[in-house]
Amino acid sequence: MGAPHEFAPPTLRDVGEDDEFVYVIAVGETSDPESWQLALMECDEEAVEDPQEIALGWDTYCLVVDPGQATHYGGVVECEVTETRLRLTLTSEAAQALALPTEVSFGLQLTADQVSLLKRGLTRVLTSGRRNARPTLLHT
Q1: Structural domain total, the chain
Q2: Model pTM?
Q3: Does residue 109 lie in a domain region?
Q4: Can you state the percent helix, strand and coil of the chain, rounding each to 5?
Q5: Which residues, 6+ apart, have CB-to-CB distance to 131 below 8 Å?
Q6: Residue 72: exposed, middle, or buried by beta-carbon count in 10 A (0-12, 13-18, 19+)?
Q7: What is the DSSP string of 36-94?
Q8: % of the chain with per-residue pLDDT over 90
Q9: Cβ neighbours around 70 below 10 Å, total
Q10: How far apart are CA 36 and CA 55, in angstroms?
Q11: Within a domain: residue 96?
């Protein structure tokens, strides 16, 4: 699990992706690796077929909050992204594991290209894995 976070920043100013092993989209307070960051990892398609992964609930996307690497599989009920805001509604279990409120909203100070990257990445990640773990509202 990971240590609870003292805060989640009101504004996110950096976004990036990595597709080396498993696809990851991350959005953070700044580009400094020590700053607050939310990373969302796509579900490995093999996990959807693996009985052990299914039993552990690992057959869906994964969220990680740094610093501390607080981790939760699934848990996004709603996700909305505009040019200036990211809004997430989390299950109570996900919110507790990630030390976030169930309703969290971040201002975005990103370029148009960065917002496009965030929208594409969130759509890719949040539609991966187990169908019943996907958000009921995904507006990107």
Answers
A1: 1
A2: 0.89
A3: yes
A4: 25, 35, 40
A5: none
A6: buried
A7: -EEEEEPPPGGGGT-HHHHHHT-SB-EEEEETTTEEEES-EEEEEE-SSEEEEEE-HHH
A8: 74
A9: 21
A10: 31
A11: yes
Judge contact between 79 and 138, C-beta under 8 A: yes
Is residue 77 a part of any domain in this protein?
Answer: yes
> pLDDT tens digits, residue range 22-37?
999 999 999 998 999 9
Torsions phi, psi for 121 (to 5 deg) = -65, -45
18 within domain boundaries: yes
Give me the domain span that covers residue 67.
11-139
Cis (ω within 30 of 0) for the bond into 51?
no
| Average of per-residue pLDDT values in the chain | 90
CB 137 within 8 A of CB 79: yes
Cα(123)–Cα(108) distance, rounded to whole angstroms? 17
User: For 104-125, what is each residue's pLDDT tens digit?
Assistant: 999 999 999 999 999 999 999 9
Q: Side by side, which strands form the sheet with 62-66?
A: 14-18, 24-28, 37-41, 62-66, 70-73
Strands 62-66 and 70-73: antiparallel
